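Notes to self after the Tuesday call (sharing in case useful).
The group wants a holo model before anyone commits to mutagenesis around the pocket. I volunteered. Ligand is pyridoxal-5'-phosphate. Logging inputs and output together so the record is complete.
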Amino acid sequence: MAPNFVRSTVRDMDGYVPGEQPAPGERIIKLNTNENPFPPSPKVMQAIREMEPELLRRYPNPLAESFCAAAAKVLDVSPDMILAGNGSDDILTIATRTFIPPGGKLAFPDPTYSLYPVLARLQEADCVSVKWEKDWALPAEGLLQTKANAIYLANPNAPSGTFVSPTKIAQLAKDFDGLILVDEAYVDFADDNCLSLVRQLPNIVISRTFSKAYSLAGLRFGFAVAQPAVIEQMTKVKDSYNCDAIAIIAAAAAIEDQEYARRTWEHVRGERQRLSSELTQMGWTVLPSSANFIFAVAPDGRGREAYLGLKRQGILVRHFDKPGLSDKIRITIGTSQENNALLGGIKALTATEKAA
Ligand SMILES: Cc1ncc(COP(=O)(O)O)c(C=O)c1O
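Result:
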């Protein structure tokens, strides 16, 4: 029983459920939480090793200014258009507290990243989900009709991996009075992004993360890009020292080493293509993905059985026990060896079923 001094909203809600994290050293092929299969850039590790102890004795720079300067150069925006966060989940929390008043409304296409409704609830706000249109097309009319304070749009979307063109998002932003947050956690694996929209459209905030494209999920670092007047307001809402000194140094080194990061993205895109076509040949239906994972419908529609069968073989993928999703599994793109093991595991499932 929850103690009665806990806010009723918190008592009555379900928390966000993260994907399983096996203990270090466990022999598992982990394709369930969309981490990058490669280690971080050697330059990141070197920057961490060379840190002065004095940097840990003192509080970190509250605005992570050295990171903002490095990121601004790479992204071709000004440093005052960037706000650093403790993972992009921190950016999403800051955005929800900045743009959605208690009693207000958050809208998003459904299904999407399941943290969004949790954040709205914590803000004592309503959330309205609008079903994606056929083939995961943007339900623009439905979203506009919600008259929400903000629309959160994961692009590429999770768990589908599908992508909405920046032109469609620009039109939505022009037609909408509130804020549009484009959650670009997976965008480095896509062909396009919404960065250039931010200059023309004051009601777009982009959030990005180092957890996927830069192999730093354990570090916890993300950032927002928006017009300076918007970043200024979001800065008031964040914790004073939301990013630690190690993370600031490591993230700056990571974004500066574009050559290394891009090599990992290229590998992931190539393997995504290979996995998608091999699974298709095995009778699976694979959604076109712009992310570092694929969402695949099991041939017999038994997604949960496929997830459990792979788990028994030491291969972790993600299954969502929800209407419209339960026939599918979401598979993170791993190294070539991991992907081969996954394909072998799926073949073994089919063989077991035939024998049964
Ligand atoms: C769509 C989406 N946005 C944001 C995040 C959070 O990423 P971070 O590790 O930066 O908090 C995730 C994590 O899986 C995600 O899938």
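Two things stood out.
The pocket of pyridoxal-5'-phosphate is lined by residues 34, 87-89, 113, 154, 158, 183, 185, 209, 211, 217, 222 (CB under 6 Å).
The chain has 14 helices and twelve strands.
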